[in-house]
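User: Reviewer 2 asked us to show a designed sequence for the structure in our supplementary figure. I'm pasting the C-alpha coordinates here. Could you produce the per-position amino acids so we can include them in the response letter?
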Protein backbone atom coordinates (compact mmCIF):
# COMPACT_ATOMS: atom_id res chain seq x y z
CA UNK A 1 0.00 0.00 0.00
CA UNK A 2 1.39 3.43 -0.94
CA UNK A 3 2.21 5.84 1.90
CA UNK A 4 -0.32 8.43 0.70
CA UNK A 5 -3.05 5.79 0.45
CA UNK A 6 -2.23 4.44 3.92
CA UNK A 7 -2.42 7.93 5.44
CA UNK A 8 -5.77 8.52 3.75
CA UNK A 9 -7.07 5.17 5.07
CA UNK A 10 -5.94 5.94 8.62
CA UNK A 11 -7.46 9.43 8.49
CA UNK A 12 -10.76 8.00 7.24
CA UNK A 13 -10.72 5.38 10.05
CA UNK A 14 -10.19 8.07 12.67
CA UNK A 15 -13.09 10.10 11.27
CA UNK A 16 -15.37 7.05 11.35
CA UNK A 17 -14.40 6.34 14.99
CA UNK A 18 -15.07 9.95 15.98
CA UNK A 19 -18.54 9.83 14.41
CA UNK A 20 -19.52 6.47 15.87
CA UNK A 21 -22.03 7.33 18.65
CA UNK A 22 -21.61 3.91 20.23
CA UNK A 23 -17.83 4.05 20.55
CA UNK A 24 -16.57 4.40 24.14
CA UNK A 25 -14.07 7.19 24.62
CA UNK A 26 -11.01 6.76 26.82
CA UNK A 27 -12.43 9.12 29.44
CA UNK A 28 -15.75 7.28 29.43
CA UNK A 29 -13.97 3.97 29.93
CA UNK A 30 -12.03 5.34 32.90
CA UNK A 31 -15.20 6.79 34.42
CA UNK A 32 -17.10 3.53 34.02
CA UNK A 33 -14.46 1.10 35.29
CA UNK A 34 -12.09 2.96 37.63
CA UNK A 35 -14.03 1.72 40.66
CA UNK A 36 -13.61 -1.88 39.48
CA UNK A 37 -9.86 -1.27 39.14
CA UNK A 38 -9.70 0.14 42.68
CA UNK A 39 -11.66 -2.80 44.11
CA UNK A 40 -9.32 -5.19 42.32
CA UNK A 41 -6.32 -3.30 43.73
CA UNK A 42 -7.67 -3.66 47.27
CA UNK A 43 -8.01 -7.41 46.82
CA UNK A 44 -4.88 -8.25 44.84
CA UNK A 45 -2.34 -5.46 45.24
CA UNK A 46 -2.09 -4.72 41.51
CA UNK A 47 -2.13 -0.90 41.10
CA UNK A 48 -5.41 0.40 39.73
CA UNK A 49 -3.48 2.61 37.32
CA UNK A 50 -1.69 -0.38 35.81
CA UNK A 51 -4.90 -2.41 35.47
CA UNK A 52 -6.70 0.47 33.76
CA UNK A 53 -3.78 1.37 31.48
CA UNK A 54 -3.34 -2.24 30.35
CA UNK A 55 -7.08 -2.66 29.82
CA UNK A 56 -7.32 0.58 27.84
CA UNK A 57 -4.39 -0.39 25.64
CA UNK A 58 -5.37 -4.01 25.07
CA UNK A 59 -9.14 -3.58 24.64
CA UNK A 60 -9.09 -0.48 22.41
CA UNK A 61 -10.66 1.55 25.21
CA UNK A 62 -13.26 -1.18 25.70
CA UNK A 63 -14.35 -1.17 22.04
CA UNK A 64 -12.79 -4.42 20.82
CA UNK A 65 -15.21 -7.28 20.00
CA UNK A 66 -13.57 -9.35 22.76
CA UNK A 67 -14.26 -6.63 25.33
CA UNK A 68 -17.75 -5.89 24.07
CA UNK A 69 -18.99 -9.46 23.71
CA UNK A 70 -16.93 -11.40 26.27
CA UNK A 71 -16.02 -8.67 28.81
CA UNK A 72 -12.43 -9.84 28.34
CA UNK A 73 -10.27 -6.70 28.49
CA UNK A 74 -6.84 -8.36 28.50
CA UNK A 75 -6.99 -10.99 25.78
CA UNK A 76 -6.61 -13.92 28.19
CA UNK A 77 -7.14 -17.23 26.38
CA UNK A 78 -8.89 -20.39 27.55
CA UNK A 79 -5.91 -22.42 28.79
CA UNK A 80 -6.67 -23.90 32.24
CA UNK A 81 -10.20 -22.45 32.06
CA UNK A 82 -13.46 -24.25 32.77
CA UNK A 83 -15.77 -21.32 32.02
CA UNK A 84 -17.46 -20.20 28.79
CA UNK A 85 -15.39 -19.20 25.77
CA UNK A 86 -15.44 -16.60 23.01
CA UNK A 87 -13.92 -17.58 19.67
CA UNK A 88 -12.07 -15.34 17.26
CA UNK A 89 -9.03 -15.46 15.00
CA UNK A 90 -5.73 -14.51 16.62
CA UNK A 91 -2.40 -16.30 16.17
CA UNK A 92 -4.48 -19.18 14.82
CA UNK A 93 -7.98 -19.35 13.38
CA UNK A 94 -10.88 -19.65 15.83
CA UNK A 95 -8.91 -19.38 19.08
CA UNK A 96 -10.74 -19.59 22.40
CA UNK A 97 -10.71 -16.61 24.78
CA UNK A 98 -12.17 -16.50 28.26
CA UNK A 99 -15.66 -15.06 28.59
CA UNK A 100 -16.62 -13.30 31.85
CA UNK A 101 -19.84 -12.27 33.58
CA UNK A 102 -18.46 -8.82 34.41
CA UNK A 103 -15.54 -6.50 33.71
CA UNK A 104 -14.50 -6.79 37.38
CA UNK A 105 -14.21 -10.57 36.90
CA UNK A 106 -11.90 -9.88 33.96
CA UNK A 107 -9.80 -7.54 36.11
CA UNK A 108 -9.61 -10.08 38.95
CA UNK A 109 -8.59 -12.88 36.59
CA UNK A 110 -5.88 -10.71 35.05
CA UNK A 111 -4.49 -9.91 38.51
CA UNK A 112 -4.59 -13.60 39.46
CA UNK A 113 -2.66 -14.33 36.26
CA UNK A 114 0.09 -11.97 37.43
CA UNK A 115 0.06 -13.24 41.01
CA UNK A 116 0.36 -16.90 40.09
CA UNK A 117 3.24 -16.61 37.59
CA UNK A 118 6.68 -16.63 39.19
CA UNK A 119 8.14 -14.31 36.58
CA UNK A 120 5.91 -11.49 37.88
CA UNK A 121 6.65 -12.14 41.58
CA UNK A 122 9.10 -9.20 41.81
CA UNK A 123 6.30 -6.79 40.88
CA UNK A 124 4.50 -7.47 44.14
CA UNK A 125 7.58 -6.43 46.11
CA UNK A 126 7.13 -2.89 44.79
CA UNK A 127 4.93 -0.24 46.35
CA UNK A 128 1.58 -0.04 44.61
CA UNK A 129 2.18 3.68 43.94
CA UNK A 130 5.29 2.89 41.85
CA UNK A 131 3.45 2.72 38.53
CA UNK A 132 6.63 3.33 36.53
CA UNK A 133 8.34 0.39 38.23
CA UNK A 134 5.32 -1.82 37.57
CA UNK A 135 5.14 -0.79 33.91
CA UNK A 136 8.84 -1.43 33.34
CA UNK A 137 8.68 -4.65 35.36
CA UNK A 138 5.87 -6.01 33.20
CA UNK A 139 7.89 -5.35 30.05
CA UNK A 140 11.05 -6.84 31.56
CA UNK A 141 9.15 -9.98 32.62
CA UNK A 142 8.01 -10.50 29.04
CA UNK A 143 4.35 -9.50 29.31
CA UNK A 144 4.45 -7.85 25.87
CA UNK A 145 6.81 -7.94 22.89
CA UNK A 146 6.34 -4.26 21.95
CA UNK A 147 9.57 -2.51 23.02
CA UNK A 148 7.55 0.61 23.87
CA UNK A 149 5.00 -1.23 26.04
CA UNK A 150 6.18 0.27 29.35
CA UNK A 151 6.28 3.78 27.89
CA UNK A 152 2.79 3.37 26.44
CA UNK A 153 1.41 2.38 29.85
CA UNK A 154 3.19 5.24 31.61
CA UNK A 155 1.85 7.77 29.09
CA UNK A 156 -1.73 6.55 29.50
CA UNK A 157 -1.40 6.73 33.28
CA UNK A 158 0.11 10.22 33.33
CA UNK A 159 -2.14 11.67 30.63
CA UNK A 160 -5.19 10.61 32.66
CA UNK A 161 -3.83 11.03 36.22
CA UNK A 162 -4.54 7.38 36.94
CA UNK A 163 -1.70 7.25 39.50
CA UNK A 164 -3.95 9.30 41.81
CA UNK A 165 -6.13 6.19 42.25
CA UNK A 166 -3.13 4.23 43.55
CA UNK A 167 -2.61 6.86 46.26
CA UNK A 168 -6.25 6.93 47.31
CA UNK A 169 -7.20 10.16 45.57
CA UNK A 170 -10.45 10.08 43.57
CA UNK A 171 -10.42 11.43 40.03
CA UNK A 172 -12.58 14.50 39.34
CA UNK A 173 -15.84 14.01 37.41
CA UNK A 174 -15.67 14.87 33.72
CA UNK A 175 -18.28 16.71 31.70
CA UNK A 176 -17.63 14.33 28.80
CA UNK A 177 -18.65 11.25 30.78
CA UNK A 178 -22.35 11.48 30.00
CA UNK A 179 -23.04 9.46 26.87
CA UNK A 180 -26.34 8.88 25.10
CA UNK A 181 -27.42 6.17 22.75
CA UNK A 182 -29.19 6.81 19.48
CA UNK A 183 -32.52 7.10 21.29
CA UNK A 184 -31.17 9.78 23.63
CA UNK A 185 -31.04 7.53 26.70
CA UNK A 186 -28.14 8.05 29.09
CA UNK A 187 -26.01 4.92 29.45
CA UNK A 188 -26.86 2.95 32.60
CA UNK A 189 -23.18 2.34 33.27
CA UNK A 190 -22.59 6.09 33.19
CA UNK A 191 -25.48 6.67 35.59
CA UNK A 192 -23.84 4.17 37.95
CA UNK A 193 -20.56 6.08 37.71
CA UNK A 194 -22.23 9.40 38.51
CA UNK A 195 -23.48 7.98 41.80
CA UNK A 196 -20.06 6.54 42.61
CA UNK A 197 -18.01 9.70 42.17
CA UNK A 198 -18.59 10.69 45.78
CA UNK A 199 -17.65 7.27 47.15
CA UNK A 200 -14.43 6.94 49.16
CA UNK A 201 -13.31 3.41 48.26
CA UNK A 202 -9.83 3.74 49.70
CA UNK A 203 -10.20 2.37 53.20
CA UNK A 204 -8.01 -0.64 52.35
CA UNK A 205 -10.88 -2.98 53.19
CA UNK A 206 -10.27 -6.47 51.89
CA UNK A 207 -13.22 -7.76 49.90
CA UNK A 208 -13.71 -11.50 50.36
CA UNK A 209 -16.01 -14.10 48.83
CA UNK A 210 -18.28 -16.61 50.56
CA UNK A 211 -20.56 -18.77 48.41
CA UNK A 212 -19.54 -16.34 45.61
CA UNK A 213 -20.95 -13.42 47.60
CA UNK A 214 -18.78 -10.41 48.43
CA UNK A 215 -18.35 -9.44 52.07
CA UNK A 216 -16.02 -7.54 54.40
CA UNK A 217 -15.19 -8.10 58.05
CA UNK A 218 -16.24 -5.44 60.52
CA UNK A 219 -13.58 -3.39 62.27
CA UNK A 220 -13.73 -2.01 65.77
CA UNK A 221 -16.25 0.84 65.81
CA UNK A 222 -17.84 -0.09 62.47
CA UNK A 223 -21.55 0.31 61.89
CA UNK A 224 -23.70 -0.90 59.02
CA UNK A 225 -24.22 2.71 57.99
CA UNK A 226 -20.48 3.42 57.90
CA UNK A 227 -19.76 0.37 55.74
CA UNK A 228 -22.62 1.21 53.38
CA UNK A 229 -21.19 4.73 53.02
CA UNK A 230 -17.71 3.33 52.33
CA UNK A 231 -19.04 1.32 49.39
CA UNK A 232 -21.58 3.83 48.11
CA UNK A 233 -24.55 1.66 49.07
CA UNK A 234 -27.97 2.80 50.16
CA UNK A 235 -28.43 1.97 53.89
CA UNK A 236 -31.45 -0.22 53.17
CA UNK A 237 -29.29 -2.42 50.93
CA UNK A 238 -26.78 -3.38 53.60
CA UNK A 239 -29.52 -3.98 56.19
CA UNK A 240 -31.39 -6.22 53.75
CA UNK A 241 -28.31 -8.16 52.64
CA UNK A 242 -27.46 -8.94 56.27
CA UNK A 243 -30.98 -9.45 57.71
CA UNK A 244 -30.15 -6.61 60.09
CA UNK A 245 -32.03 -3.80 61.78
CA UNK A 246 -31.06 -0.13 62.03
CA UNK A 247 -30.12 -0.47 65.70
CA UNK A 248 -28.13 -3.72 65.41
CA UNK A 249 -24.54 -3.44 66.64
CA UNK A 250 -21.62 -4.93 64.75
CA UNK A 251 -18.95 -6.95 66.52
CA UNK A 252 -15.33 -6.72 65.44
CA UNK A 253 -14.60 -9.46 62.89
CA UNK A 254 -18.27 -9.99 61.98
CA UNK A 255 -19.07 -10.79 58.35
CA UNK A 256 -20.93 -8.00 56.54
CA UNK A 257 -22.25 -8.76 53.08
CA UNK A 258 -22.09 -5.98 50.49
CA UNK A 259 -23.98 -7.96 47.87
CA UNK A 260 -27.16 -10.06 48.19
CA UNK A 261 -26.66 -13.56 49.56
CA UNK A 262 -27.41 -16.39 47.17
CA UNK A 263 -30.64 -18.37 46.91
CA UNK A 264 -28.89 -21.66 47.59
CA UNK A 265 -25.75 -23.00 49.20
CA UNK A 266 -22.65 -24.43 47.56
CA UNK A 267 -23.32 -27.80 49.26
CA UNK A 268 -26.55 -29.82 49.41
CA UNK A 269 -26.96 -29.79 53.20
CA UNK A 270 -25.43 -28.59 56.46
CA UNK A 271 -25.46 -30.06 59.97
CA UNK A 272 -26.22 -27.52 62.69
CA UNK A 273 -23.77 -27.16 65.57
CA UNK A 274 -24.28 -26.17 69.23
CA UNK A 275 -25.62 -22.62 69.52
CA UNK A 276 -26.25 -22.08 65.82
CA UNK A 277 -29.43 -20.48 64.55
CA UNK A 278 -31.10 -20.10 61.17
CA UNK A 279 -29.71 -16.57 61.03
CA UNK A 280 -26.13 -17.49 61.97
CA UNK A 281 -26.07 -20.35 59.45
CA UNK A 282 -27.45 -18.04 56.77
CA UNK A 283 -24.62 -15.61 57.46
CA UNK A 284 -21.99 -18.31 57.76
CA UNK A 285 -22.87 -19.96 54.45
CA UNK A 286 -23.86 -16.92 52.39
CA UNK A 287 -27.37 -18.16 51.71
CA UNK A 288 -30.54 -16.09 52.11
CA UNK A 289 -32.35 -16.85 55.34
CA UNK A 290 -35.70 -16.98 53.54
CA UNK A 291 -34.31 -19.69 51.25
CA UNK A 292 -32.99 -21.63 54.23
CA UNK A 293 -36.41 -21.42 55.86
CA UNK A 294 -38.23 -22.39 52.66
CA UNK A 295 -36.06 -25.44 51.97
CA UNK A 296 -36.51 -26.74 55.51
CA UNK A 297 -40.00 -25.60 56.54
CA UNK A 298 -38.60 -23.29 59.25
CA UNK A 299 -39.06 -19.76 60.53
CA UNK A 300 -36.18 -17.38 61.24
CA UNK A 301 -36.69 -17.82 65.00
CA UNK A 302 -37.14 -21.62 64.92
CA UNK A 303 -34.72 -23.11 67.49
CA UNK A 304 -32.22 -25.63 66.12
CA UNK A 305 -30.91 -28.67 67.92
CA UNK A 306 -27.27 -29.72 67.41
CA UNK A 307 -27.17 -32.32 64.65
CA UNK A 308 -30.17 -30.94 62.76
CA UNK A 309 -29.60 -31.44 59.04
CA UNK A 310 -30.57 -28.43 56.93
CA UNK A 311 -31.04 -28.53 53.19
CA UNK A 312 -29.19 -25.71 51.41
CA UNK A 313 -30.73 -26.39 48.02
CA UNK A 314 -34.21 -27.19 46.83
CA UNK A 315 -34.94 -30.84 47.52
CA UNK A 316 -35.68 -32.96 44.49
CA UNK A 317 -39.10 -34.66 44.56
CA UNK A 318 -38.80 -38.25 45.79
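Assistant: Here is a per-position design you can include in the supplement:
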Amino acid sequence: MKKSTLLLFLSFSIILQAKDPNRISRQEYIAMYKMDAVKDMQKTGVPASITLAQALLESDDGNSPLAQEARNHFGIKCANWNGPGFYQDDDSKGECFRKYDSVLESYDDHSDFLRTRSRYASLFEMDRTDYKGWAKGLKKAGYATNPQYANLLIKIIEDNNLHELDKGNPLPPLASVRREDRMGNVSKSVRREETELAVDPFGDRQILLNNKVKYVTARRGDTYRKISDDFGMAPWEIYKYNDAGKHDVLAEGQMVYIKPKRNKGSEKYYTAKEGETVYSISMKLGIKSKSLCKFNGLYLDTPLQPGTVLWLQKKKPS
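For the response letter, you might also mention the following. The CA atoms of residues 81 and 98 lie 7 Å apart. The chain is about 40% helix and 10% strand.
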